[in-house]
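Everyone, describe these structure tokens:
***
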Amino acid sequence: MDQEIKLAILTQEGVPDAIWSDFLNHCHTPGAEDVHVKKLPPEPKCGILELIPAAIALYLAKPFFDSFLKSLGTDAYAKTKSRLAQTFSNTNSLNLTIAASGAKKIGKGTSYSRIFSIHSNTLDGRAIKFLMPDKPTEEQSEEIIGSLIDQMAAYYETSEDSEILNIILDSESRGNVYLSYSFESKSWFEVTTMDLLGH
């Protein structure tokens, strides 16, 4: 029985489970401990990956892409993307109040979501943080999630068709990787820490 963690959610106390319950139930293998949810009390966020802290951080582990998705038929694969996109859309119902931002944190004016973010890892173990747009429409949620899932699945297959693989190979960063999506060009691009801080 598959005991590998497929995905995990790190969030704050008070955020309703209904935001993600359909997606997690769809991904969970009965009898396996492959889906984790951890809720923490609200507290200051530190560390480089918390440059843009999010109230809900979804971590998609390697087994999600290279075993779980591969086991799905075409309809179930499409349903996985649809339910994750709905999870993202559900976050529009949440309101977030930012009390203050530190000198090395992104302030209130960013176009990136402070409520929802998606994380994964590179093949060499570095963290990837996908910067999600704030208050997306349902169509935008479906587009960005569909692309993210397809691209990361191709990345873990080291496919030459993986846009994300090529971005990571070309990246000058030897540390964590921030990625953002352009609805205009329908493609992913790297965002550097300096870009985020406006330097």
Notes: The helical segments are 21-27, 62-68, 74-90, 138-156, 163-170, 193-197.
